[in-house]
Write a structure and sequence with these properties.
heterodimer, A: alpha/beta, 14 helices, globular, B: 14 helices, about 80% helix
């Protein structure tokens, strides 16, 4: 290309210049990126904490929890803390951390997503041994209804009435959807507290599923579909509805079924990341702060149920008569195997319904 | 296709060719190869097991069935639209011509939202149809509707230029010899148009096999009912069944690729007939 005679060579040269420009741009970006790196956890009076959280806690974290912790950290240690935050669907966030996102603290929507990190060797096996079994938030599974509850929905069995339109997300794509489905399944299973009844559980779930209009890929999208006017009822988390209320200043009507599931949101330290960043101390302090009275009040303000019932904000609905936990159902691994594994109850709902139709 | 480059300087020529080929390899061949390797890794028995899983099989069948219905409608309506655009003059023709490409420009998720707003159970039209037992959104017809929208331009845009170039003398001659409009179309026009119609429908079909964004909004996502192949793939990846997802991906991909290869062959065979 030494003697540029034809326009193609000129073009190539322009291209080379463009390439050189973008290469130098990339280099600048890389350098500036690595420039912040060494500052974290090292001296200089500033700590950096990377948070990988699920989307539902975003508002609470941004507006209250992170500023609250920064003030708390400043007061106790005299040091600044800088946050790097990422919010994503719980499962996607968990997978991102496994594939190399170096979050120091993982705040996810269910144990399974933390267990994935344990399996990858990133989180300590005994992450549930601390206070509150690794949990930071609670909520309950409820039924969102139309204003005035025109469909007269009071309990899970009402969702099984023929002709009703029900919404919940797809448990294949939304880990959080498993809370919703477990609530229905569990209500059937535990209808007689003395003897768990798997047949009743399966029957209730299959009759509700027959009314399901659309399964969105996430809980948030399911709510959006409901708000656009589809369906008579949406199975969702109480905190999701209360958060919408806070945001919109409205009061979305919802029903608390007599028997429902307690949702438990976990958080854990990603040992592999804090080891690399040398900031375990601030990560531990952050997890402790999340369980402090101040943080629990903030979280309650954003719709969650506090770990300590005494911190319940005034005006919150009383908890249902029979509130069960995943432990009452036999734990996540038992339910995952029984319901969601290939050929489990969830798959059978469809294969058997298909058989009945024919 | 091996024509001499008009610029003719060998080093630049070679460089350009190398760049183009590496670009193709990097953007298309490598990802395809990676996918094929991943799908093939578990072995033939596992492949067969994942393929014959009732959920995967139904999703594939649904994808092909809805795509097939879509191309039937598009072949007829697309040809008719191209015909109107080429053969008639009317006010607003320019606007209509521009509107045709809009479905390509709209993000597919937005397409889904539009269709839900228009035909959804809470819309005027949707509730009217629903009351008469014609559920569209969150039912199988919704899938066909979404596919029709996203693949709308294909047939029109491949038939239109052929119609434009067509010599009206042949049709006029047929008419002079006493052939009716239908006979003229069947004997004269259609034989010239069919390769273009086929090209358009085949492109639309391959596009439909992979369509996700709009379909996921309108289909309802119910297994064994309204869950298409791409939605099945998404669900299985999200729930950790990568192998199952890969198998369905590879089947969809192989079909698209097969269609495009056959199409290329047909076009080559068709070429001398058109004297091009």
């Amino acid at each position: 290309m030494e003697r540029a005679t034809v326009n193609i060579n000129g073009g190539l040269r322009r291209l080379a210049r463009l390439g050189g420009f973008s290469l130098s741009l990339l280099l600048v970006l890389l350098l500036s990126g690595s420039g912040c790196g060494p500052a974290r956890g090292a001296g200089g009076g500033e700590d950096t904490l990377t948070i990988g959280a699920y989307s539902v806690v975003r508002e609470a974290f941004r507006e209250k929890i992170l500023p609250g912790f920064a003030a708390h950290w400043k007061k106790t240690t005299g040091r600044q803390v800088r946050f790097e935050e990422s919010y994503n669907a719980s499962g996607a966030q968990s997978r991102a951390i496994v594939s190399g996102f170096d979050a120091d603290v993982a705040v996810l929507s269910l144990d399974g997503d933390i267990e994935r990190l344990v399996k990858a060797g990133l989180v300590a096996k005994d992450w549930k041994s601390g206070p509150h079994r690794g949990l930071i938030t609670r909520s309950i599974v409820v039924i969102g209804v139309r204003p005035g509850n025109p469909a007269k929905i009071g309990d899970w069995s009402d969702l099984a009435r023929p002709g009703l339109g029900v919404l919940y997300p797809d448990p294949k794509t939304s880990g959080g959807a498993r809370w919703n489905i477990n609530a229905i399944y569990g209500a059937g299973l535990l209808h007689n507290p003395k003897a768990p009844d798997p047949d009743a559980a399966r029957d209730l779930l299959s009759r509700v599923q027959a009314n399901v209009v659309n399964m969105d890929s996430s809980g948030r999208q399911s709510m959006a579909t409901f708000e656009r006017g589809t369906g008579d009822a949406v199975v969702t988390y109480e905190n999701e509805l209360l958060l919408q209320d806070k945001r919109k200043g409205s009061q979305a009507p919802y029903v608390v079924p007599e028997t429902t599931l307690q949702i438990e949101g976990p958080a854990a330290i990603v040992e592999a990341s804090v080891k690399r960043h040398g900031n375990r101390e601030v990560a531990v302090a952050f997890l402790d702060y999340l369980r402090s009275e101040e943080a629990q009040r903030h979280l309650a303000e954003y719709g969650f149920r506090p770990l300590d019932p005494r911190l319940e904000p005034p005006g919150r609905r009383p908890l249902p008569a029979r509130l069960f936990t995943m432990k009452d159902l036999g734990g996540w691994s038992k339910i995952n195997k029984e319901v969601y594994d290939p050929g489990g109850v969830w798959d059978q709902l469809f294969t058997q319904a298909k058989g009945r139709n024919r | 296709m091996s024509r001499r480059s008009p610029t003719g300087r060998a080093p630049a020529d070679l460089l350009l060719r190398g760049v183009a080929l590496s670009y193709l390899a990097l953007m298309v061949v490598l990802p395809l190869a990676a996918l094929s390797v991943q799908a093939a890794t578990p072995g033939v028995a596992a492949f067969w097991k994942h393929l014959t899983n009732p959920f995967a099989w139904h999703a594939l069948k649904l994808t092909f069935a809805t795509a097939f219905i879509m191309v039937l409608i598009n072949a007829v309506m697309g040809t008719a639209t191209a015909w109107v655009l080429v053969r008639y003059d009317f006010p607003g023709k320019g606007v209509m011509n521009a509107l045709i490409d809009v479905p390509f420009a709209v993000p597919t998720v937005v397409t889904g939202l539009m269709l839900v707003a228009l035909y959804g159970p809470s819309s005027v039209l949707g509730s009217f149809l629903g009351r008469h037992g014609w559920g569209v959104i969150y039912q199988q017809p919704g899938i066909v509707l979404a596919l029709l929208f996203v693949s709308y331009p294909f047939v029109i845009r491949s038939v239109q230029p052929v119609l434009l170039e067509m010599d009206p003398a042949e049709e006029e001659a047929a008419a002079t010899l006493g052939a009716g409009a239908i006979t003229t179309f069947r004997r004269i026009t259609f034989p010239t148009l069919w390769p273009a119609i086929l090209t358009g429908t085949a492109l639309a079909f391959s596009r439909a096999l992979g369509e996700f964004g709009s379909v996921v909004m309108v289909a309802g996502n119910r297994p064994l009912e309204t869950k298409t192949g791409p939605m099945y793939i998404f669900g299985e990846i999200e729930s950790g069944n990568r192998d199952g997802a890969m198998v369905v991906s590879v089947v969809l991909l192989a079909c698209s690729l097969g269609i495009l290869i056959i199409l290329n062959r047909l076009q080559h065979r068709g070429r001398p007939v058109h004297g091009r």
